[in-house]
Each structure stands twice: as C-alpha cells, then as structure tokens.
Amino acid sequence: KWLGSEKLVIVQGDFVLKAGFNLSEFEGFEVKGNEVIGEWPEPRLLSVEPVSMEIFYSKSGKWNKLSDQDYEAVQNLLVQQARRDALMKSNILEEADRIIQTRLEDLTDGELRFRRRGLE
Question: What is the pTM of this model?
Fold first, then answer.
C-alpha cells in the first residue's frame, strides 16, 4: 500500500528440491564386527529450483503500479517459502540420510550395517 493505493500479486509455484551431503565434512568409519559406525555429515538442503510459477491474480493500484521488481520480489519470497516448507514440513533430510545409509550397505552387498555415530 502506498498513499491508499494497493497492489497485489497472488502466485503459486512448483519446485524441485535437492538434498545431500558435504562430503568434505566426512570423518570416516570404524568397523566393529559386521557393523560400521560412521561420521558422515548431516544432510542439508542443497537447492530449491523453481519449475513453474503461476500468477493467479495481480492488481495494480491507481498510483501504486506493479513493476518488474515487484514480480521478482514475489518470486524470491516464494522460493524462500518453499525452502522453509521443505525443511519444516517434509522429510527430505531424513530421506537423504536413509538413502546414503542404504547405498553404503549396497556397496558391501548388505554384509555390513552402517549407522551414524552417536545413534548407538
């Protein structure tokens, strides 16, 4: 709102989320029998990539007109919201952790069981 003139944009977006690990933080493994206890890094959200964004409604005010900067700001806010939602409302990080554990076990044909140190 500016001088009683209101502008409004309502948008929806679809995103591709990628989670993974910073392997430079890898600390190694300790083998105890058929169990491997590891210090692999915590999973993190690596990227939030917009696939599509749809403007449902937009309205310029009489004096307060929508600009390209307004649409860019709305797009940036939507990406930030998608990132927050991914971290707070999804299990993407837990799934990344489960997948790396499964892949490590696949490398040993299931003969060794991997788990993160501290989860003993």
Answer: 0.71
